[in-house]
Amino acid sequence: MKRLRCVIMRGGTSKGVFFHENELPQDPDRRREVILRVFGSPDRRQIDGLGGADILTSKVAIIGPPSRRDADVDYVFGQVGITEPVIDFGTICGNLSAAVGPFAIDEGLVRVKEPFTQVRIFCPMVGRYLTAEVEVRDGKAVYEGTFRIDGVPGTGSRISLDFADTAGLITGELLPMGRAKDTLYVEGVGRIEVSVVDAATVVAFVRAADLGLRGAETPDEIEADKTLMEGLERIKRQVAQLANLTQRSPLLPMVAMVQEPVQWKTFATGEIVRAEQVDVLSKVYAAGMMHKAYPVTGCVATGAAAMIEGTIVNEILSERWKGREELVIGHFSGMIPIEVAGEGKGPEFSLRKAVVYRTARRIMEGWVYV
């Protein structure tokens, strides 16, 4: 039996196991095997490991010294399969990214500057950068604060994350299909319009109404509809083939069902959110299940889609929003704002700014036994 030092951290609405790069085997196959054992995968409950049996809690972050001179640390993210013995290292997790800066600061990997330290994060698996700004006191990251994000109880210190460098992250193209909108024929669904956008991740946007949704449904209600879930999976697979994603990531694209806002109750607390509080309502299907909050990478893609003329998201947004930089997205657990800016039309659109604010928390540190 071997023990490995690790830290469990929450980043945004996700939770993951953080390792120093040199704590894990260098051989890719052996590393994958060890991480699967750490999480207890494959097993629906992940009962024999640290995984939380949910897409939001089955995540690993590997932090190492920078491979680029203009970065502070390298960050490799892995989405660990729950029922399948797979790990997808080909993407980044926007929510968990919020914990990378605090981890690097607390572990002494970067030189700190009070009261705020900027951490330049390079993601070698996708070749892009993130910039995090973290509050610091007495040489350590500050976790206590008054900033609140929906989907997480309590408050914390605000962390800013800029994803402006992530346009075309997975496919190399902001619009992988070459157009702002396409019409597909999907078995079991029929003809459906879809907008595919690659910014921080790849998201296929469809109208919620085209799938029979009204807007107030809970994730449990949607997952109980087997026909709908099968339809979402078929949309995902067809877009993956058309956008050449099958060899890049088994989990992409996410499918987002978007619509004009309505009043709804949040999933976790039952709090009422009024239609006028948000600009667009969106529900995300990913990894075979409904995302209980909203992925930050999906938030970046939604922000980019909002600004690209002709996309389904752009068409849904009210004239009230257009021209502003802050977009507020409604989701199962509440709201998530993003500050987004850019210029150009269609495939020529350039993403200049994509800032999301999150909180993070260091939950435990110690050893996991393999």
Walkthrough of the structure:
This protein is an alpha+beta fold. It has two domains: 3-169 and 359-369, Diaminopimelate Epimerase, Chain A, domain 1 (Roll), CATH 3.10.310.10; 182-348, Diaminopimelate Epimerase, Chain A, domain 1 (Roll). The chain has seven helices and 21 strands. The strands form two sheets. The chain has a 19-stranded mixed beta sheet that branches. Helix 1 (28-39) links the parallel strand 2 and strand 3.
Remind me, CATH topology of the largest domain? Diaminopimelate Epimerase, Chain A, domain 1
Shape assignment: globular
Runs in which pLDDT lies below 50 for 5 or more consecutive residues are none
Distance between the termini: 6 Å
Topology:
Layout: E1 3-11, E2 14-20, H1 28-39, E3 59-64, E4 73-80, E5 87-88, H2 94-97, H3 100-106, E6 116-123, E7 128-137, E8 140-141, E9 159-162, E10 182-186, E11 190-198, E12 202-207, H4 219-224, H5 226-242, E13 254-259, E14 264-265, E15 272-273, E16 280-286, E17 289-290, H6 296-307, H7 312-316, E18 326-331, E19 334-343, E20 350-358, E21 360-369
Parallel strand pairs: 2-3, 4-6, 12-13, 16-18
Antiparallel strand pairs: 1-2, 1-21, 3-4, 4-5, 6-7, 7-8, 7-9, 9-20, 10-11, 11-12, 13-16, 14-15, 16-17, 18-19, 19-20
